[in-house]
Amino acid sequence: MAATTHRGACFCGAVKLEVTGSPVAMGFCHCASCRGWLAAPVHGFTLWPAANAKVIEGVEQLGVFKKTERSHRQFCRRCGGHVFVGHPAVSMIDVMSAVLPSLPFQPTMHVHYGEKVLAMRDGLVKFKDFPKNFGGSGDTLPE
């Protein structure tokens, strides 16, 4: 059986990427860093093994901003559209959910809910920081 492939692009379409298989996790991030970079109250993430994601067109248009070595935020230099965030320490790539239109976004958690500016009452688990298996405390918060 062939692995599922999803393709996406930046806002103007100059940078195109594809991911194969299934994401490791999908959810919402409420950290101040994501909120600031995206200029939004919350970030819909899809987390993939780095080996399952690749830029297939426009790599020369890809810009990188590294606020920390943990997160390499990548964007299109032409339109400024956010494409993905590389997390090299854990060999993962976070592709913004809106960048992958064919992927049904089915979030299962909230991370960094302790930093939220927008409460979301959706019945999903709310981690204060990260789940233990992602290097966090695993502590949860009420809705």
List the helices and strands and how they pair.
Elements: E1 5-9, E2 16-20, E3 25-29, H1 32-38, E4 43-49, E5 53-57, E6 62-68, E7 71-76, E8 82-87, E9 92-96, E10 109-111, E11 125-126
Parallel strand pairs: 3-10, 10-11
Antiparallel strand pairs: 1-2, 2-5, 3-4, 4-9, 6-7, 7-8, 8-9
Which radius of gyration do the C-alpha atoms yield? 15 Å
Helicity, as a percent range: under 10%
Strand content: 35-45%
Order of helices and strands: EEEHEEEEEEEE
Query: Which strand order does the major sheet show?
Result: 6-7-8-9-4-3-10-11
- Number of E-type strands: 11
Question: Which of globular, elongated, flat, extended, rod-shaped describes the shape?
Answer: globular
Low-confidence stretches: none
Largest sheet: 8 strands, mixed
Nearest-integer average pLDDT: 95
- Per DSSP, the total helix count is 1
Structural class computed from helices and strand pairing: mainly beta
Distance between the termini: 40 Å
